[in-house]
Structures are given as C-alpha cells and as structure tokens.
Amino acid sequence: MRAGDAYRLLVRRGGAAPAMLASPSRVDHVEVVEVGSGEVVLSWDASPRDAARLVRALRADLASRDAEGFIGRWTRPAR
C-alpha cells in the first residue's frame, strides 16, 4: 500500500504568516496520522522554517514510498 493512501499529513501553524516571514519564536506542529485508525503515528514541534522543510520532505516520501518504508524511514533514529 502506498504511504499516501495509508497516512495523512496535518500541519498546524502557530500564526498566519508564511514561514519566511514568521517570527522565529513561533512553533508549528506537524503530524502524520494513520488513515485507518485515526491515530497520530508521528509528530513534531518545529520552528516555521524547519517545519516547512519537514513538510516538503514528508510529502515527497508520502508520494514515493510504500507505507512500511515510509514509517521505517521516519522512525529510524537520526545519525
């Protein structure tokens, strides 16, 4: 099953301004939710610019990976 079919990406911004114009103290929240159960499987709180980069990377992986490969990629500890 494709990751984009199994998971949904939710982004809550801490303000209305785009990331490039947002205050560095603003916090954006990014979640990956499993469609079948509605459970949050991954979540991050990040600065606006970091959140924007994270969302781009997550969207690319949701479009190109299968569900197991996607979760494996994003739950693996950072090196």
Describe the structure.
The termini are far apart. By secondary structure, this protein is of the alpha+beta class. 38% of the residues lie in helices and 25% in strands. The longest helix has 17 residues. The chain has one domain. The model has no long low-confidence stretch (mean pLDDT 91).
How would you summarize this macromolecular structure in one to three sentences?
The chain has 79 residues and is α+β, with helices and mostly antiparallel strands.
Quaternary status? single chain
| Mean pLDDT over the full residue set | 91
Number of helices: 3
Order of helices and strands: HEEEHH
Number-wise, the strands total 3
How many strands, which pairing sense, and closed or not: the largest β-sheet?
A: 3 strands, antiparallel
Percent of residues in helices: 25-40%
Radius of gyration: 13 Å
Overall geometry comes to elongated
Task: Tally the structural domains.
Answer: 1
User: Strand percentage, roughly?
Assistant: 25-35%
Contiguous uncertain segments of 5+ residues:
none
| End-to-end gap | 28 Å
Biggest sheet strand order reads 1-2-3
Give the helix/strand class. Answer: alpha+beta
